[in-house]
Amino acid sequence: MPYFDAASSAPLHPVARQALQASLDEGWADPARLYREGRRAGLLLDAAREAAAEAVGCRPDELVFTPSGTHAVHAGMSGVLSGRRRVGLGLTVSAVEHSSVLHAAAAHEAATGGAVSEVPVDRYGAVTPDTYAGALREDTALACLQSANHEVGTEQPVAAVAEACRSRGVPLLVDAAQSLGWGPVEGAWSLLTASAHKWGGPAGVGLLAVRKGVRFAPRGPADERESGRSPGFQNIPAIVAAAASLRAVRAEAAAEAVRLRALVDRIRARVPELVPDVEVVGHPEHRLPHLVTFSCLYVDGEALLHELDRADFSVSSGSSCTSSTLTPSHVLRAMGVLSEGNVRISLPAGTPEAAVDRFLEVLPGVVSGVREKLGAPAGSGGAGTVAGTDGVGASLMVDALGRRCPIPVIELAKVFGEVPVGGTVTVLSDDEAARLDIPAWCEMRGQEYVGEQPADHGVAYVVRRVS
Amino acid sequence: MPYFDAASSAPLHPVARQALQASLDEGWADPARLYREGRRAGLLLDAAREAAAEAVGCRPDELVFTPSGTHAVHAGMSGVLSGRRRVGLGLTVSAVEHSSVLHAAAAHEAATGGAVSEVPVDRYGAVTPDTYAGALREDTALACLQSANHEVGTEQPVAAVAEACRSRGVPLLVDAAQSLGWGPVEGAWSLLTASAHKWGGPAGVGLLAVRKGVRFAPRGPADERESGRSPGFQNIPAIVAAAASLRAVRAEAAAEAVRLRALVDRIRARVPELVPDVEVVGHPEHRLPHLVTFSCLYVDGEALLHELDRADFSVSSGSSCTSSTLTPSHVLRAMGVLSEGNVRISLPAGTPEAAVDRFLEVLPGVVSGVREKLGAPAGSGGAGTVAGTDGVGASLMVDALGRRCPIPVIELAKVFGEVPVGGTVTVLSDDEAARLDIPAWCEMRGQEYVGEQPADHGVAYVVRRVS
User: Fold this and answer.
1) Is the pLDDT of residue A1 over 80?
2) Given an 8 Å threshold on Cβ–Cβ distance, is A70 in contact with B223?
3) Cα separation of A122 and B232, whole Å?
4) Tell me, what's the pLDDT at B154?
5) Do B292 and B233 have their domain in common?
6) Structural domain includes residue B390
7) Count of structural domains within chain A
8) Are residues A150 and A202 in the same domain?
9) Which of B21, B35, B67 shows the shortest C-beta gap to A204?
10) Whole domain around residue B241: which residue ranges?
11) What is the pLDDT of residues B404-430, one digit of tens each?
């Protein structure tokens, strides 16, 4: 039963399980108490903090445990934004950060009126250090950049951005949730956050490292635990398991990264050969070893996930139909790549080669089955029967109002061959995904995306046939 | 090795351990995902929510899991204070709430300027419904009252206060951290909070119940999990263990309450017989079954805890010397009872009778040992050698500046016999505990506490000998 969604949550590592069970007997008491049971719990907590700090690359007194990666991000961002209020209220983030960062940024903007600058990314999902540095201003209190993207696996130039931030005196918070199991984050970061269940530790444990010298003022009600940076009674057995499994995962990381990278490279190469009309997204080289994402034209992401689940493959998707808000993933949107029929595969450590082979066997049939049900155009043809160069002025209108992704793109493709070269097709759609997927279709097909215009209902997307 | 501090954290219940281990294999995936592993995790979460809601006495969709009792309190309070902002910014709490409530109240006051009314308690630590109702105002957005006090065990008149709140349209949040294992909270409460590690569940799980109809606006960054009321990835194995152990603890609660109440009654009766100059605090009847607190005159709390630990007893204390801020417990202060030499005993379920017997054997020697080292006056004598009714105007001054609890009270007691009836002793002290313990000494000794006056250094506490 291949589970290919480690980027959401990894199965518990055997070392995590052992450490958890071994510390249940000694880790339940209050580590702040001075009696025997408290002292024992305190010793476990201290040892876990030292082990985790070593893996992060910071001092133990710079590291606190939080109840989740989300809590680490929220506490880290609000602590710096409060502590550096005199500098200003400016906040810089990349456009492809995890939702915990973007939601904290939105909350900061709503509560204080502080401006949030979103640094755009290239088509691979990466910021450039220059663009990032250009977004830093006099009043920037905090900058945030993930170590690697959780949806497409692209690594960010953290060390260069950290240096740019350092030279301007702006602390950089690095969300290392996806990468910490693979290795420490290089560069002069100021804060780092992570989440244990992403590397095979238990849920319920996040890490927040704050370098000495960073102005930090915890927000919210006072609480003495975890240096005042993370309220509530610590879950020590889970913390012990998190630290032990991080160490274990790190010991296996170099070899496992090589092995998984080969499997991911195979998926990246083979999927476009096996399945027509696929766009593999994310950087081809600067990437996490275990994560690969692609999108399939004319495919409903939810149906695809369902069929893959029936075939025993558990994957996730950034397609709009798999989101509760019916909008495509903000990461794919920021990259400007196709979002329909999106599949993210993130291999847990230990994934056997045979599971990947089997996936590659199953995928083509699953995709073509979904396409068939939707009445998608067969083959990768785009330019159809009507041709000629006299089509300037000729136009067709497709009404896809009320139809959800991928139908507007399917309808576009169906009629596209009917306009001559030079002519246009206008798609009326009220589906958010169309705004991303119609231009992406043009890019994949080599056709011209003219632009969008407001319409009485929905939006009119105009495409010109150029070949 | 008797552990008598269940009110801080209870050892893991065997059912919690079993449930935790049994759900590690199925509870690690993201319950928001639709694939097999996610659905299994979701089923575990749903079942745990139903079980916990049944034990709380609410609907499953009224209950969310938080990472701790502290998080539940913070989220519950801030959610109502935000949601009812149009009503006003007023907040009513009892003076003896858990620090998580009082710290959230202070944060609310600091952030919004909203007024916090603290309802005083009687000498047993209980509010009266009338006093509580009198503190509710037109602009009161939220009222908070614990079900039972965590330091002295006194039960609060929650049902009557809830009714008073209901009739004025003010939602009442009940912090049930100490009592939920013993039974549901009666009365028309609006919100309820609790913490699993207090009943023998694992750390890392709090409960927040919010009745339908309560205006609630989660504060802080948006997050979809737990109905938007508690951010971060859920720790499902811990949640399953929390719910299973709550059910198990409840099944044993009635019988165990009877048994532990008898042991606590024995401690309450025997300690004052075995140890001179002891004040047993908290309500004699309306109390938690497993918790008893007493204070010993002329005793250093930290030394007492240390000696009890050496004798294998783990207890806690509200004495100032055991607090990082060197102030006595706010609960003892609000009750106006002696804080020096304070011992809280909270028996975990299953505590054998023999452990309590052994404690009663050991305690007298431990207390007299600590008193001897401090040079405390022997016996319970107060009125000493000099007597007569002609002492009006006679006075003595004791300089205890720079001396910590219990020294100022010991110095008072040492010289008290030297003034005649009608005369006064003035104690100069800069120790916060003196403000509480000198009046408490007068109460215990039947002498008159005249009052305090500012002095060049510290405060002058004046006591008149009346017998």
Assistant:
1) no
2) yes
3) 29
4) 98
5) no
6) no
7) 3
8) yes
9) B67
10) 14-249
11) 999 999 999 999 999 999 999 999 999
Interface predicted TM-score (ipTM): 0.95
For residue B8, the chain A residue with the least C-alpha distance is A30
No. of H helices and E strands in chain B? 12, 14
Among chain B residues, CA nearest to A308 = B35
Q: What is the separation, in whole angstroms, between the first and last Cα of chain B?
A: 45
Residues of B in contact with A8 (CB under 8 A): 29-30, 33
Interface contacts A/B by beta carbons within 8 Å: 189
What's the CATH number where B453 sits?
3.30.110.40
Residue A34 to residue B10, Cβ atoms within 8 A = no
Q: What is the pLDDT of residues A411-454, one digit of tens each?
A: 999 999 999 999 999 999 999 999 999 999 999 999 999 999 99
* Nearest-neighbour CA in chain B from A28: distance (Å): 6
Q: What is the pLDDT of residue A326?
A: 83
Residues of B designated as active site: 321
Domain for residue B430, yes or no? yes
Is the residue at A310 inside a domain?
yes
Residue A324 and residue B224: Cβ atoms within 8 Å? Answer: yes
**What are the backbone angles phi and psi of residue A344, rounded to the nearest 5°?**
-110, 125
Question: A9 pLDDT exceeds 90?
Answer: yes
pTM listed for this prediction: 0.95
CATH at B300? 3.90.1150.10
Distance from CA of B238 to the nearest CA of A (A): 9
Q: HSE on the CB side for B442, CA within 13 Å?
A: 21
Residue of B nearest to A314 (CA): B35
CATH of the domain at B92: 3.40.640.10
pLDDT at B389: 52
- Contact state of A314 with B33 under an 8 Å Cβ cutoff: yes
